Amino acid sequence: MIEVLFDNRQDYMEVKEENMKAVEKAICTTIDVEKAEGNFEVSVSFVTNKEIRELNRVYRNVDSETDVLSFPMDDEEDPEGVIMLGDVILSTEKIIEQAEYFGHSLEREMLYLTVHSMLHLLGYDHMTDDEKEEMRDMEKEVMKELQLFK
Questions:
Q1: Which of 28, 50, 86, 103 has the fewest CB atoms within 10 Å, i.e. the most exposed one?
Q2: Single pTM value for the model
Q3: What residue spans define the domains of the chain?
């Protein structure tokens, strides 16, 4: 079981029910491809560039906007046996900007950023070339499963 909690804290982009279902599917697919087992909870927040910049400054000491932030939890089970993976924070302004820049649909950009962030929550990183390659391979595998990458 995977529970996804949504929090829309912006009005820059309309986030529709179908978008949330697609994000939830991307989260579930990432967990499936990773072969992670258990009951999971993930929160997804849609924010402005201003808010994500502030979060980036406070938590990463980087005073700039970014497209997505991941805040992994300690992944211990709660009393009901649910593993709280963490928080995915998406900048809707960056989704629009990057979708235009890369020639993607808004949904494709949103789902790619969700997959990228989920992989961080599952322990992947891209600090070294080897880590980057491993993470990119997983992103491609999940995007193929979602039929968004050939």
A1: 103
A2: 0.94
A3: 2-145
| H-helix or E-strand spanning residue 68 | strand 68-72
Question: How far apart (Å, rounded) are the C-alpha atoms in residues 5 and 113?
Answer: 17
Q: 51 and 20 in contact (C-beta within 8 Å)?
A: no
27-65 confidence digits (pLDDT tens): 999 999 999 999 999 999 999 999 999 999 999 999 999
What is the sign, positive or negative, of the torsion defined by CA atoms of 24, 30, 32, 37?
Answer: negative
Pairwise CA distance, residues 87 & 3, whole Å:
12
Q: Which residues pair with 45 in a beta bridge?
A: 7, 89
Which H helix or E strand runs over 17? helix 17-34
Pairing relationship of beta strands 68-72 and 82-91 according to DSSP bridges: antiparallel
Q: Which CATH superfamily is domain 2-145 in?
A: Metalloproteases ("zincins"), catalytic domain (3.40.390.30)
Amino acid in the structure at residue 112: Y
